[in-house]
Specification:
The chain has 292 residues and is an alpha/beta fold. The chain is built from 15 helices and nine strands. Helix 9 crosses helix 11.
Length: 292
């Protein structure tokens, strides 16, 4: 009963922030908080994975720390680096006053550390939300850097020692499945897959984000999007594209969707010329399917 009530509170709080959350995602977020384990969110691009971290940070009134992954990430850009300029000044001060009792190894202390996102999430008394976004875009070797952080909530600095979290952050890891993640990382996380929403839920999302659309038009947009995702495009449109399309239709002042509207707004849904061309060529079929 307590778990059910907590799930409903998460759903209601996220809805207030205009994020329509289902029971499974709400339960995964609840478990991540109660078990203090990272949550790995996988799904197609544009389904709202990153937004989950932003919204839950807002709901919990915690600071959001975001690490955007890309090829070539290393410890210097993600965990820490030494403030060499400050260290050099300190060493010069030691040379100028040898009797100060200060030793060279004393420049390798927390005072001279420049924290990067992973270390920032561990420092301080306040609880935080750490978003490790699109981890599948980083090199496979980078996952090894994360294992200690994800399992022990600590990082090791060779010259200094181990820094443990004073308060464990809520960690959200997202992946677009560009490549398969290693089992070692997955074992350290809870897992949830965010799929494309059903038309009914997508209609709710549209009305929450673009409230000036009337319900019938939002429902039609959701049905068309559900239909489009059954076809083989180079890049199928996600919820982010749905919202762009709904916003464009609202700005046009349209009360319905016709072929002209689909032509004019095709760039909201597709970002590849081949996909735009196929969409325009098949617009009659796409409309007929949802109107039948």
């Amino acid at each position: 009963m307590k778990t059910r009530e907590a799930m409903q509170r998460i759903k209601a709080a996220m809805r207030e922030k205009n994020y329509i959350c289902d029971d499974e995602l709400a339960f995964s977020l609840y478990l991540a908080q109660e078990m203090e384990k990272p949550l790995l969110l996988e799904g197609e691009p544009g389904v709202g994975k990153t937004e989950v971290a932003k919204v839950i940070a807002d709901v919990l009134e915690r600071k959001l720390i975001r690490l955007q992954c890309y090829e070539g990430l290393d410890a210097t850009s993600t965990i820490y680096e030494w403030n060499y300029a400050k260290q050099l000044l300190k060493i010069k001060a030691i040379d100028a006053c040898p009797s100060s009792g200060f030793h060279l190894e004393d420049v390798f202390t927390e005072e001279f550390l420049i924290p990067r996102p992973l270390l920032m999430a561990l420092q301080g008394e306040e609880k935080k939300v750490l978003l490790i976004d699109e981890i599948d875009r980083a090199d496979e070797e980078f996952e090894a850097f994360l294992l200690e952080m994800l399992s022990e909530f600590q990082v090791s600095v060779p010259e200094y020692g181990t820094i443990k979290a004073r308060n464990r952050p809520l960690v959200i890891v997202t992946s677009n499945r560009v490549r398969e993640l290693h089992d070692a990382l997955k074992r350290r996380c809870l897992y949830h897959f965010i799929d494309y929403p059903a038309p009914e839920r997508e209609m709710e999302i549209i009305l929450a984000k673009v409230p000036r659309l009337h319900t019938e038009l939002a429902a039609k947009i959701a049905r068309i999007m559900n239909n489009l995702r059954q076809y083989e495009f180079y890049k199928r449109p996600g919820v982010a594209e749905t919202l762009d399309w709904a916003e464009a239709i609202a700005l046009l002042g349209k009360s319905d969707i016709d072929e002209e509207t689909m032509d004019m707004t095709s760039g909201c849904l597709f970002k590849f010329h081949e996909d735009v061309k196929r969409f325009k060529e098949g617009k009659k079929e796409f409309l007929a399917t949802v109107e039948s």
